[in-house]
Amino acid sequence: MPKDISEWGRYSDPSLLILSSLVNGPKHGYAMMKDILAFSGTRLEPGTLYAALTRLERQEWIEALPTQERRRPYRITGEGRKVLQEQLQTMHRIVSVGLDRLAKA
Amino acid sequence: MLLKLILKLYPPAWRQRYQEEMLALLELHPLTWRTLLDLFWGALDARLDPGFNRPKSLFPTEKMHRLRQTHSTIFWAFPLLVLGHLLFLDELDDVFQTWNRVHPALSAWKTVAGVLMAIGFLAFLLTGLLLACLLARQVLQTIGKGKRALLFSGVAVALSVTCLSIYVPMAPLCPVLLLLTACPFALAFAIWRYELPLRSLRYALAPAALVVAGMMAQLLCIAVWGAAIWNVSTQTVQQMALVADRHLWPGGWWHAQLLSGLLWMALTAGLALWQWGRGMNGLRRKETSEAGPS
């Protein structure tokens, strides 16, 4: 599996959303879906959520915590924070350049 | 129920790790067509993921289920192979009797394959009797709730014994043939439906190997024999059929008859071999606890 999150095809955006959702504390699957819907307007479906979670967990960018009433919370790791920061900075650069060029056009 | 069924599409290793939490999530999430499609897509993604398809470990129940599938498949595939031979190749075999005799190498080849098939058949009867007796004992221990199991295993034991009687010349033969055909299917159903001790199923894999080897030998024999007689002209075959007083497929389609028989046998023998391999593969794997990963 590629180390670069942008090469994960249809799971790259959901993975970024999940990492962003976990930055402010551990969450289980349903809480992540609600949080992502609230801050991005994206309605993640369970199949996509778990496909992305699998990839993130395998890269050790998130880790599973002990199960609580059948639900398993996940938290972001230090490596996961670093990856998220790099990705967001790249996106930020794209947004800045794009907006700048739009303003000048 | 539907959700559990859909989650069965995911590979076992994935289910072992994520099924419980996914089910807890799905209980809160409204189920729409979009969700269902997304789950199908997720299952396909997990199936294609080599990380979930490595031979890692099996739950004891999965191992048991796999072994039951193996034995059950062998018990319906073997009679179907014989049936395929009778339907497509028996007459053709009779037609080529004289031709076979003229070619001693081919005749010897057929004898070897016949001996292997006979060993396979004996192993089939032995395994059948063993498993049928175990099923009957199991049922006797839980007689209150196992009336149907009693019926099936009882029938299986009776029919297995009847199968042995074909080695004793007796008339009329028709009921025996009928029972011979019915017996393995009843047993296959009983093995598939009811639990047996894991250890017994494991030991039964050894004679089952002989059964599968017999089936493969028969298939190989027919394939080689078929290749050897392939170039015989249709006219000659029709003449031989007249002399032997046997009826082949109309219009001189004996090649199609041969190929159909081969295909039928390849399907049944291939399925039995594949299932036997799955059973063996399951045995080699490490067992994990039923509690699941923490």
Descriptive tags:
heterodimer; A: two-stranded antiparallel sheet; elongated; B: two-stranded parallel ribbon; disordered C terminus
Task: Explain the overall architecture.
The complex is a heterodimer of chains A (105) and B (294). The mean pLDDT of chain A is 88. With 105 residues, chain A is mainly α. Chain A is built from four helices and two strands; from the N terminus they run H-H-H-E-E-H. Chain A is 60% helix and 6% strand. Chain B is mainly alpha-helical and 294 residues long. Chain B has helices spanning 2-7, 12-28, 33-48, 60-95, 97-102, 104-141, 147-164, 174-193, 198-203, 205-229, 234-244, 254-284; strands at residues 57-58, 286-287. In chain B, helix 4 (60-95) runs parallel beside helix 10 (205-229), helix 4 runs antiparallel to helix 12 (254-284) and helix 6 (104-141) runs antiparallel to helix 10 (205-229). The longest helix of chain B is centred in the middle third of the chain and has 38 residues, at 104-141. Chain A binds chain B through residues 28-30, 33, 45-51, 53-54, 58, 66-67, 69-72, and chain B through 14, 18, 20-26, 28-29, 34-35, 38-43, 45-46, 49, 51, 294.
Short description:
The complex is a heterodimer of chains A (105) and B (294). Helices cover 60% and strands 6% of the residues of chain A. With 105 residues, chain A is mainly α.
Q: How many angstroms does the end-to-end distance of chain B come to? A: 25 Å
**What proportion of the residues of chain A is helical, as a percent range?**
55-70%
Counted beta strands of chain B: 2
Query: What does the radius of gyration of chain A come to?
Result: 15 Å
Q: Helix and strand string of chain B, N-terminal first? A: HHHEHHHHHHHHHE
The greatest interface here is: A-B, 20 and 24 residues
Give the number of DSSP strands of chain A: 2
Sheet of most strands of chain A: 2 strands, antiparallel
Terminal residue distance of chain A? 40 Å
Strand portion of chain A, in percent? 5-15%
> What pattern of helices and strands is seen along the backbone of chain A?
HHHEEH
Outline the low-pLDDT stretches of chain A.
none
Quick check: average pLDDT of chain B? 77
**Helical percentage of chain B:** over 70%
How many distinct helices of chain B? 12
